[in-house]
Amino acid sequence: MIKKKVLKIVQMIPYGKVASYGQVALMAGIPRGARMVGQILRNTEEDILAGMDDLPWWRVINNAGRISIKGTKYHTPLMQKEKLAAEGIEVKDDLTFDIEKYRFRPSPDQLGKMGLDDKFIDLMVEKFFI
DNA sequence: ATAATGACATGTT
DNA sequence: TAACATGCCATTA
């Protein structure tokens, strides 16, 4: 299922790094599925609270380098900001920061090990200049 | 089966 | 820079 794959990718984002929704989607094999990533993370809130705290949802932001959640039952933009700050990423008051400075850029090798298809690896390289 | 719904991305104004 | 429009596509109703 798409959901499982996406969650797996999100779990691979290292401490102090971030990835955009579109980037996660691409790595999960859904080149244009950015919105789905957001959907999945939102629908997974309860599972996260259920104990699975190894899902770093706060490391996923939009490609403009801006926190884009509007606030849900359990998470708020401010919470995400705090989480990022705790990892050394200072988010400005307008909820933006320099994403390129912290973007998760796995090497093609790593991507291969993640079970990613060659065509997607190529797209990653082309788009994010690995 | 059809249509609406997003924690998005990009190009145009 | 910021607002707007259009494209996206798995889920859900």
From TrEMBL:
Residues spanning the membrane: none
GO molecular-function terms, A-Z: catalytic activity
Record carries keyword Acyltransferase: no
UniProt key word Amino-acid biosynthesis: no
Pfam families documented for this protein: DNA_binding_1
Domain Methylated-DNA-[protein]-cysteine S-methyltransferase DNA binding: 3-88
InterPro entries from the UniProt entry: ATL_DNA_repair, MethylDNA_cys_MeTrfase_DNA-bd, MethylDNA_cys_MeTrfase_DNAb, WH-like_DNA-bd_sf
Keywords: DNA damage
Taxonomy, superkingdom: Bacteria
One record GO biological process: DNA repair
PANTHER family: 6-O-METHYLGUANINE DNA METHYLTRANSFERASE, ALKYLTRANSFERASE-LIKE PROTEIN 1
Name of the protein in its database record: Methylated-DNA-[protein]-cysteine S-methyltransferase DNA binding domain-containing protein
Organism: candidate division WWE3 bacterium RIFCSPLOWO2_01_FULL_41_9
